[in-house]
Amino acid sequence: MMGLMFFGALFLYVLLCLLLAWLASWVAARCGVAGWKAGLPVFIGLLLLVFWDWLPMEVTFRYDCAKYAGFTQYQTLEAWKRENPGVAETLVPIKNPRSERHGDVERYVLNQRFAWEIRHTPHWFHIQEQDERIVDMKTAKVLARYVDFSTDILGLELGYSARGISDYKIWMKKQSCEVGQRMPEKIKFNGYKGKIEDIGRG
Q1: DSSP count for the chain of H helices, then E strands
Q2: Where are the domains of the chain?
Q3: What average pLDDT does the segment 146-166 reach?
Q4: How far apart are the first and last CA of the chain?
Q5: Opening angle at CA 87, ends 82 and 88, nearest 5
Q6: Residue 148 or 21, more confident
Q7: pLDDT of 1 above 50
Q8: Across the strands, what pairs with 119?
Q9: What's the pTM value of the predicted model, to 2 decimals?
Q10: What is the pLDDT of residues 5-41, one digit of tens each?
Q11: pLDDT band at 157 (very low <50, low <70, confident <90, very high)
């Protein structure tokens, strides 16, 4: 329902832009100038007041998703065990790990050796990067990584309060690079993390 209201308001705004462009065109024609020379700039200028960041966001978001997003496994758990013989047998999973802050990193310690780290990095045009990693805390080595992108546009239809005018730009809302794909890359990362969490469980 809320979405229909926003799209209705958007439709009315476009109609207003067309009306004002027509008015500018009519005035220009009365003054002996080609109407489109006044109407077109007015129409484009009014649209850009609201939509100026939409196209750059779409281009940047699609580029970031294509180039940087997805799951990367740097080392299998089996290879790590071969590098660290006997260590896995000493690890005990931490039940319900708590979130810890280390600068801009949110960390969940999974056992005495591994942590799950999450970084959120803002980019241009409301895009934000989510970088999740499985890290060997002793060596700081990253064993697996998942990168995804979204926009910081809130879903006002879910009852959130707007922080600014950008939150009304629901056409710019992006939840993930994998929306509509059942998130196979995220599933791969979660599977890897699940193996780490299972170390030491009977």
Answers
A1: 5, 6
A2: 1-52, 70-198
A3: 70
A4: 50
A5: 85
A6: 148
A7: no
A8: 105, 131
A9: 0.79
A10: 555 666 776 777 677 777 777 777 778 778 777 777 7
A11: low
The two structure tokens encoding residue 109 = 């310690």
Is the dihedral angle over the CA atoms 163, 168, 172, 173 positive or is it negative?
positive
Decide if pLDDT at 201 tops 70.
yes
The dihedral of CA 50, 53, 56, 61: what is its sign? negative
pLDDT at 55: 87
Give CA–CA dist 24/30, Å, rounded.
10
Give me the residues paired with residue 115 across strands.
Answer: 109, 135
Both tokens of 4, joined, read 């229909």
Question: How far apart are the C-alpha atoms of 174 and 62, rounded to whole Å?
Answer: 11
Q: What are the DSSP calls for 10-21, one per residue? A: HHHHHHHHHHHH
Neighbour tally for 158: CB within 10 Å: 7
- Evaluated on CA atoms 180, 182, 188, 190, the torsion sign reads positive
Say if residue 126's pLDDT is above 80.
yes
Please, are residues 137 and 124 in contact by the beta-carbon 8 Å criterion? no
Return d(Cα 171, Cα 192) in angstroms, integer: 34
Q: Is the Cβ–Cβ distance between 77 and 68 less than 8 Å?
A: no
Beta bridge partners of 194: none
Exposure string over 184-201, b if 16+ CB within 10 A, otherwise e: ebbebbeebbeebbebee
Quickly count: other Cβ atoms within 10 Å of residue 114's Cβ.
Answer: 23
Measured CA to CA, the distance from residue 76 to residue 144 in angstroms comes to 8
